[in-house]
């Protein structure tokens, strides 16, 4: 909503400066988002009287004027057609700063000019180029024009919340300012016609659907002359962001902005049978709106028709067949109230929104419908030279009744947190034009018709708090009982998980939850749920896997020559259920991706690239930190996006915790990238369920350890994790630790075999172990490995 | 004899003082005190000493032995110290070289911001709650007092799913779910991802995060809302930050408000370096969040009695807060996954 400072001042004589007023409007709940200085952006222009006008000897169109500014008489050359001795004009002295530039002494066709008499356009006040701008004849001379005429103004851009359609108008905002400042609100005086009378001979209105159209008023103005609007109106419309067209159209727009009453002006002679019928559209019926678009309608849409044809799409836009043109002489003005949700449905469905529909769908003041009608009619008489046909039409089958709200003052003060006496509550409400009566301890508050948002005690509480001023409410901390402590366990778990991964050198991502189905297909992920109205095709499906997002980020960074990528994302995926209407499962997943160099480039670090075991290491470290184990590692039956030989499923007691591995080159290609990329996903919800963040501690032995190393030859695919487990199993009390310290294939190792070197720490909690004990344990271990894995000692 | 012992003793002590390293020291020690050492030999010469003199000589030899041993210890300490000093003087690295890189990841800036915000509310006894991102129309709108076909829905341009559900446009449906599950009192925050059909540009993204707050109990007032929010603002933005509560509208709160804080760039003056403050555009205030007293219609929808309890709710967008916190001028940076950006946190 745009309105100007001076426009508002027409209704309330406030004393606030433009900035002060803006702050007050904001604190009333109508946020002033911008204040723009308009008009009067010039200096050095003073009032001066034209003493004489002589023709220029060398130019037909120029005159030589003698201009008196109260102190001296100056010679000025003027090109305007309306120079007239005795008039007071706006005189730009030499050095004056005008919107178009600085005024200098010039010589025109041999005659010197000491300044310039200005038109409004030259001063940037309006677009009126027609001639000099004259001020009142009795204006004091030699004074800055801004002091004599109030030219400068400030346009406010105000955000009106959807519950306050009444404030989509100058009068609505003025009413709020009046309540806040305590100054009276003065509305333009409008003389009303009686209902009925002569108008009935010219027009008949039939409302066929009084639910969709509870009120319809009309008036006829005859003999108008279409002309441009006067400056004051054109300027205000312009400041409000509405283009001036002609006096009749401008008046309907002006009244809409002033009173929040949408109007429609019909050329009376295009209305067949002297009749207006308000009815629902037939299924498939069409109307061409004044933007020259043909609109196809359904039964839910409402039409304004004459005796034969639709002439307007009710509340949204007029028809092309009945609009006011330059030849229009007689105007029938419509001012009506349409049911809000119906207008909104039609406007949304047709995809056509207007200043009118915007207001109707928020609900206008149905009691003020006739005021807007008469305001427009009187302006048409005044500015269009028309004559109102006596009487007006007012079809209003069910009169409005004021809502009355029972208000318990203690409930108001209880909600707001300020002790306000009953009288103060009543005073605040009265200033907003609420009717207030006492009823025992309670107040009976009747809601004024323009306040369509108020119907309950809580709404009244807001009015009281708002007018009392939110800023004055003291700050307190609620002292009630603490809420039952039921923290969402996953939250602190996610917090821990993220920090663990950051500690391992991974960078956290948050990527968008939507992507394209083909990206999910590329990683063998399930079909995602489609967005019905996506922003674009590549944001049309809810992701069922984090892998595509991780791969996209890898490709993005690699393309920018950042090939070393260690990232994770801990987010939800959306897995459809069997019942497609049901809310999907939204498990949290942990996506991991490693690619590029293992270490940063450094003078003292190796330049190796990451491999499968870097990723497995991250998973192991995570599981260890979370206290989850022992886990098993299996090759999946179906490798999906991974290389079959380089991927693993990690399980705890047959429950899958996640899958990870080296990404297949074909998959990478689908993301327009390539390289050695290791990635995977873990099920966070399952990890959270299994996590034992407080670890089970083993006692420390006070006896010394013995260390033994062995290397064995086994089949190349013998599972090392099972070998480790088997070694420990030989004597869990004495074999404290087993590590793999070397893995070798190649020269000296037969094909199909590998050499695995284990380092054992033997240590007993109860006694000191001897070398002989150590040898005995090593012997048993070798036996076991030989027996179970066909291992032979490698000398 | 006596002179000889004295001579051995003095020569040994002098030699020890000259010893350059531990082997040399040891050689001198062995030369004097060893089995074939000079003092040992002297002791063996005792048999030639008259019986009367023997105790005296014996005492002399023992004294000499003690003195030499003492000198050995003394010089050992000296030599070790000298050696360490020499070593310390020679061991030298180029301290201008970079240290060995320790891998360091980084938390996402939104995570950091969210964690800090939530920690403040946790101090005040607010507990974490959560709800689904795919919601029903009823939870996202209906229960929150958005009537069907109401323009208030336009403020939140919704992404609908083909199965008739929608992506939540705010975290407020969590309020509804929590109140349906639990009896009052409720004191919760619910951070989470939300979605709106906003075309992507420097300040808009179709996915963003919010923190929702809700406190429901007997006798909760608008003043309590101000108190809680002021505590939060001063913890997060510093103790000098001022707040301003301004009337506004949300369908699910009545009265409704927006909270402004004094501009953190110009400290509320509206001016910076003699110019209009670019952060608050000269107003001195920055809009932070929306809030209000829970609308009775919401209580009725979840089965609470609005005559028994009152409550307040608030919701804030994390991206905007993070953008100002880290002076990030393009929201897309949070979501593109550009490591040149993310690794700075």
Give a written overview of the molecule.
- The complex is a heterodimer of chains A (795) and B (345).
- Chain A has 795 residues and is α+β, with helices and mostly antiparallel strands.
- Chain A folds into six domains: 67 residues, Phenylalanyl-tRNA Synthetase, Chain B, domain 1; 106 residues, Beta Barrel (OB fold (Dihydrolipoamide Acetyltransferase, E2P)); 198 residues, Phenylalanyl-tRNA Synthetase, Chain B, domain 3 (3-Layer(bba) Sandwich), CATH 3.50.40.10; 65 residues, Phenylalanyl-tRNA Synthetase, Chain B, domain 1, CATH 3.30.56.10; 202 residues, 2-Layer Sandwich (BirA Bifunctional Protein, domain 2); 88 residues, Alpha-Beta Plaits (2-Layer Sandwich).
- Chain A is 27% helix and 28% strand.
- In chain A, β26 and β27 form a beta hairpin.
- Chain A is elongated.
- Chain B has 345 residues and is of the alpha+beta class.
- Chain B contains twelve helices and eleven strands.
- In chain B, β6 and β7 form a beta hairpin.
- Chains A and B meet through α8, α11, α13, α14 and β28 of A and α5, β1, β2, β4 and β5 of B.
Structural class by helix and strand composition of chain B = alpha+beta
N-to-C CA distance of chain A: 90 Å
| Oligomer type | heterodimer
| CATH top level assignment of the largest domain in chain B | Alpha Beta
- Reported CATH architecture of the largest domain in chain A: 2-Layer Sandwich
User: How many domains is the backbone of chain A divided into?
Assistant: 6
Give me the CATH fold name of the largest domain in chain A: BirA Bifunctional Protein, domain 2
Fraction of helical residues of chain A: 25-40%
CATH superfamily of the largest domain in chain B: Bira Bifunctional Protein, Domain 2
Structural class of chain A: alpha+beta
Number of separate helices of chain B: 12
The tally of structural domains of chain B comes to 2
